[in-house]
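Exercise (ungraded).
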Amino acid sequence: MTFINYASREINCKIVYYGPGLCGKTTNIQWIHEQASPEKRGKLVSLATETDRTLFFDFLPLDMGMVKGFKVRFHLYTVPGQVFYDASRKLILRGCDGVIFVADSQRARLEANIESIANLATNLKDNGFDIRNIPYVLQLNKRDMPTSAPLGEMERLLRFRNEPMIEAVANKGTGVIETLKACARQILMDLQRN
Amino acid sequence: MGKLDLVMFEEEFTQLQEIIGRLQVDSSSKVVFLVDKNGQQIAASGDLRSIDATSLASLTAGNVAATDGLAKLIGEKEFSLLFHEGEKDNLHISIVGKRGILVVLFDHNSSLALVRLRVKKASRELQEIFEMVEKRAQSQSGESSKFESPFSEITDEDIDKLFGD
């Protein structure tokens, strides 16, 4: 749900990074936080466990600049990936404008990716969204791992609506901005249509 | 799709700002925020310099959402009021209408009783404005031709520019 404020001339959009545990959701937004200039980025808030696993969410506000005289601000959220945090994941999807699914390319995690997409579909539905038409990007992360599955196989298993599919190595920044941009494009084009 | 964008125009924004400004003075509090349930700040009043308002908005919404989850687990619809007591500063968080959260930050210059009293009155006024905004959004979604959106002409170049390409 985009918040458009005509008084302060601001558009606020919420983007959620979703995916199985340890797939690199937090790494994506940490990299964006490190790279963004200080005047663009807000504070990165991480509600994590002592071992740095996401407990509730990470949050990063980003001021992107102007579109049609309006200041565009993205609010990036991650969800906790572990299966038992499902209640929290559902809450964080509330009012989202777009979803980035971060898939773990390692062969051993293929099933976890599929389960997580199914879980995303259910949780989106519970929030009144349809995974088939919400702005959505598939990021294939950890492409540099020797155990990663071939691109074609991942596409066949995980891509279901011709969504933008981006290869990434989030800890090196590869594909991170492209992913965000692909999602932002869909959200802003949605605004145009609506 | 189950989403309706929150669109706030100058007039409504000024009214909201006026109400929370008055609430901040009447309740002798330090800062008052009005936050959307999805974590976006709508309006604020008071000394904001020492506070990261964006994080506060996001965390408050997360807090309310988690508490909502707890409420449902025990068969309640929601907990309409949360109070956090600190050594010096306290947070009074209350739900306004369907989508608003009112956050009052106060210290020893005020009291919980005074804040509760003032919040009650302000909430009613805020709720009326929220209802107005919602009604307008619904009527506009039905007859989109009346409302000329400035975003109808967003181009690929506009989006590239945001990312510095």
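Further reading is listed at the end of the chapter. For now, observe: Chain B has a mean pLDDT of 89. The domain at 10-162 of chain B is CATH 3.30.450.30 (Beta-Lactamase).
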